[in-house]
Design brief:
Elements lengths: L11 H17 L4 E5 L4 H12 L19 H4 L5 E8 L6 H6 L5 E2 L8 H19 L7 E4 L7 H8 L3 E2 L5 E2 L7 E8 L19 H5 L17 H7 L9 H4 L2 E3 L3 H4 L26 H5 L3 H7 L9 H15 L4 H10 L5 H22 L1
Parallel strand pairs: 3-8
Antiparallel strand pairs: 1-2, 2-7, 4-7, 5-6
Helix pairs in contact: 1-5, 13-15, 14-15
């Protein structure tokens, strides 16, 4: 049972002042929006259990772990009464469609072009947590910040707090900012006044995100089958990418943004103010072949501090090989693929060999 008597000496006026300060502090730390919610995750937990029953999580076993800590917040952080939710915009460029249309370019999900958001946002949330503690030095607070970590249902919490609504593409959509933003949370035992600003679902009859998905990963609106999602295949899947998905991946080598790019609410989405999210090493507009030629030392150097690093060099080559198989017919590409064959893992060889076959077929068609 949640503890409700710990801070009886805090009057309503003090709590409202603190809530206002938290929002000001958050804005000063670079968050575009800060909201406070008294969590109620009963419905979200039911949807999660149904999703898991359908095995839509694929190999992401952690989604079914941790028991009820995911939706009983005080079991994850003792004495939690409120969740402070934040969002931070990350879109740094508008070059997405042009890159996707160029079969020889490598498309990397926009969230991964710059510095790893986990570290940046975690540091900012830790500072916000310290400010709350400094404001209430006489109290024994129970608080913990999260950034896409631990069993936290961040989208339902953010939806309840009024940061947006969960759209048909299963992403949180904000009426002013679209969906190009990161989320973070602070679990706190302070009984702050809550924001009752839930945004109504404004997807209406629109099915653009469902129609545009290259792999039909949405079995129904608001439900994502991760196993069919290109982001899952290129990032979470540690094994071979099913051959049936490879032609559908096109040049998407790390993640996929199609369901965001097409979303009407992302028209005119604000650009990020965080320089750390700006593209590094021309990753927003690089040729597939250029990236495929990187030796492991260059991969490690140029992905330092990047979300891309987590998939490792072999999966990086696997994804790029698929992209090269889908690229325009090219003798240079074919030669590079054949040259690389002896020096990669068996898993990568499988994808390189597939790409070689695709390239040979294209070149034969060109020669006819």
């Amino acid at each position: 049972m949640l503890e409700t008597t710990k801070y009886d000496n805090l009057d309503a006026l003090s709590l409202h002042e603190l809530a206002s300060n938290i929002k000001d502090w958050g804005e000063g730390l670079g968050f575009q929006e800060v909201a406070i919610v008294k969590p109620d995750l009963d419905q979200a937990s039911q949807r999660l259990r149904l999703w898991l029953d359908n095995s839509y999580q694929g190999s992401m076993n952690w989604m079914s772990e941790h028991g009820d800590k995911r939706y009983n917040v005080d079991k994850l952080v003792a004495r939690t009464l409120r969740v402070i939710t934040v969002r931070m915009d990350y879109l740094a460029d508008e070059n997405m469609v042009a890159v996707l249309k160029d079969k020889n370019k490598a498309y990397i999900s926009r969230y991964a072009l710059g510095r790893d958001y986990h570290k940046l946002i975690r540091k900012r949330l830790a500072e916000l947590t310290r400010k709350i503690e400094q404001h209430l030095p006489h109290l024994n607070l129970s608080q913990r910040p999260f950034v896409d970590s631990a069993p936290v249902m961040e989208k339902p919490l953010a939806e309840q707090a009024g940061l947006g609504w969960i759209g048909k593409n299963s992403l949180l959509i904000n009426s002013k900012a679209g969906s190009w933003f990161f989320l973070g949370e602070i679990y706190t035992s302070v009984p702050l006044p809550v924001d009752n600003l839930e945004q109504p679902n404004r997807c209406g009859n629109c099915r653009a995100c469902i129609k545009v998905c290259p792999t039909d990963a949405f079995p129904e609106p608001y439900v994502l089958d991760a196993r069919k999602c290109i982001s899952y295949q290129t990032i979470e899947n540690k094994d071979s990418i099913p051959e049936s998905f490879r032609p559908l991946m096109g040049n998407r080598v790390f993640g996929c943004d199609d369901c965001q790019i097409i979303c009407p609410w992302n028209r005119g989405a604000p650009k990020t103010k965080e320089m750390d999210f700006s593209p590094r090493h021309n990753l927003d507009n690089s040729d597939l072949l250029t990236l495929f030629k990187w030796p492991e030392s260059e991969f490690l150097s140029k992905t330092e501090g990047s979300p891309i690093r987590r998939i490792g060099y072999q999966r990086w080559l696997r994804n790029l090989a698929v992209g090269l198989g889908n690229a325009e017919g090219s003798e240079k590409i074919l030669q590079q693929l054949e040259q690389t064959m002896p020096d990669v893992s068996d898993m990568v060889k499988e994808h390189v060999n597939w790409a070689i076959q695709q390239q040979r077929q294209k070149l034969a068609t060109i020669a006819e």
